Structure formats: C-alpha cells, structure tokens
Amino acid sequence: MSLLKVEHLHKSFKGLHVLKDVSLAIGAGERHVIIGPNGAGKTTLFNCITGTLPIDAGTVTVNGQKISGLPAYTAVRVGMSRTFQKNNLFGSLTVEENVQLAVNACKPHRFHFLKPLARYTETVEETESLLKQWDLWERRSRVVNELSYGEQRLLEVLLALASKPKILLLDEPTSGMSPAETVQTTKLIQRMPRSITLLVIEHDMEVVFSIADRITVLHHGEVFASDTPGNISGDERIKEIYFGGGTLQHAEA
Ligand SMILES: Nc1ncnc2c1ncn2[C@@H]1O[C@H](COP(=O)(O)OP(=O)(O)OP(=O)(O)O)[C@@H](O)[C@H]1O
C-alpha cells in the first residue's frame, strides 16, 4: 500500500489552472523526485499536499487517512515535515538555538518563557544528537546570519528532521548552493534512514539521479511521466519538453 497518495488533484489561481488531475502514489521509504520546467506547478503541489493551500478537487491521503480539506496541522500530525525554497530561520540566533527551538516546538509540553531552554534536558540532548548526526556540531555556536547560504539551507533540512517525520518534503534543497555544498546535501539526503519517505523537488539532474527511486515529471500542471530513473532518462519526449533535447543526466535548470 502507498504511504502517500495524491488522487485527481486540481488547483487553480483565479482561473489559471495550475494543477490538472495530478495523481501520485508513493510507497513507504521511497525517494520520489519531482522534476519539471519552471512554473510547472511543483511547489504548488507541495503546498496542496501539506495543506498550505486549499485544493479545488481531489484527495491527499497518508496511510489511508484523508488529510486534504483539513487544517494544515493535520499533515504535521500524520508525520509530514517540509522545507521551503526560502529560508525560515532565526538569523540572529545560533545554529544550536535554532535547532533547540525546532526540537522544542515538536514537544507536547508548552514553552515557558521563565525557564531557559537549556533546562529542557530532553530538548538539549536531542539537539546535540541531531547536530552531531548531520555534521553541524562543529558549527553549533555560529550565528545563522553569518553562515553561507548553503549552510543555512542545510540547517533548514535539519530543522525539518527535528519533528522525526515519516514523510519529508524538500523543495529544491540544493538551489543556490556551491558545488561542494550540493555534494554535502546530496550525501545527507542519501544518508537519511528509509524510515523517512522523501518527496523532493529538484532541478539539478546530478542530484536527482543520485537520490531518486522514482521520478515524476510535471509539465504544465500535469503528470507527464512517473517512472524509474532509467526509464525517465531514456525518454526522448522528456528530454524535449524539459531541456529542448539536451541531456537529462547532467543538465541544469
Ligand atoms: N499563490 C499564487 N497565486 C497565483 N498564482 C500562483 C500562486 N502560486 C503559484 N502561482 C502560479 O502557479 C504556477 C506554478 O507555480 P509553481 O511555483 O508551483 O511552479 P514550480 O514548478 O514550482 O516553478 P519553479 O521551478 O520556478 O519553482 C506559476 O504560473 C505561478 O505563477
């Protein structure tokens, strides 16, 4: 059975039909990458899946439980976490403080302003574990505004992991990164345990083909193809719509 299912999803903005009858079925543990030209509707699809945007028609289910049409926190409750194209970090705080806040926000107890964060032993321990596991321990005291753009994006992925998600949606995790940062982020994604199902929007084909189990091509808001990386890279029609006939393996958006 699929863990995440999108069925016949439609979404318009004031008459502009951005998603048309989109269906996807993603198995537990799968690494599923969404590709498609700019404006194809990829981020809108993420927003509809996570409930950030209301949908016009169709359903989104997780483990058979319908989450579409319900408040956005429902997606979080069923184990979904996501990153955005733009950073959502507290720039004047340190790396460690940002992670502590994210870890603490996922705890059932309420934050108490009179207690310093460090007194929440569990939060501190989980923060340390996340920072060590994802190679940010050495940079824990750095103020976020002083990090490179790529480091900030990496931190965002770590914050999304703080809620121990079952399904993690990453929106262009390597965009704006240096080649070295892209390699580091790709390795981080590859290292994620299969207990986390991944849905990733990505333009960099090196990254796409090094992480994907399956690839869905969105074109003008429709699923043009959904297949294995081998079949996608060999499909001449996809090369044509996506790259005007260029190579799929090493092209950049
Ligand atoms: N809130 C909105 N209101 C109106 N139009 C929107 C809104 N969000 C997205 N759109 C339009 O929907 C279309 C798809 O946008 P979307 O951002 O989903 O594409 P994308 O495939 O993620 O593109 P990119 O690769 O450039 O990020 C675009 O024409 C965009 O202008």
Itemize the secondary structure elements and their pairings.
Layout: E1 2-13, E2 16-27, E3 31-35, H1 42-49, E4 57-62, E5 65-66, H2 73-77, E6 80-82, H3 95-105, H4 121-133, H5 149-161, E7 167-171, H6 179-191, E8 197-201, H7 205-211, E9 214-219, E10 222-227, H8 229-233, H9 236-243
Parallel strand pairs: 3-8, 3-9, 6-7, 7-8
Antiparallel strand pairs: 1-2, 1-4, 4-5, 9-10
Helix pairs in contact: 3-4, 3-5
The protein binds adenosine-5'-triphosphate.
The site of adenosine-5'-triphosphate (ATP) has 10 residues, from helix 1.
Description:
The chain is an alpha/beta fold. It is 33% helix and 25% strand. The chain has helices at 42-49, 73-77, 95-105, 121-133, 149-161, 179-191, 205-211, 229-233, 236-243, and strands at 2-13, 16-27, 31-35, 57-62, 65-66, 80-82, 167-171, 197-201, 214-219, 222-227. A 6-stranded mixed beta sheet has the order 6-7-8-3-9-10, sandwiched between helices. Strand 1 (2-13) and strand 2 (16-27) form a beta hairpin. Helix 3 (95-105) crosses helix 4 (121-133) and helix 3 (95-105) runs parallel beside helix 5 (149-161). The structure holds adenosine-5'-triphosphate. Residues 13, 18, 36, 38-44 line the site of adenosine-5'-triphosphate (ATP). InterPro entries: AAA+_ATPase, ABC_AA/LPS_Transport, ABC_transporter-like_ATP-bd, ABC_transporter-like_CS, P-loop_NTPase. This is Branched-chain amino acid transport system ATP-binding protein.
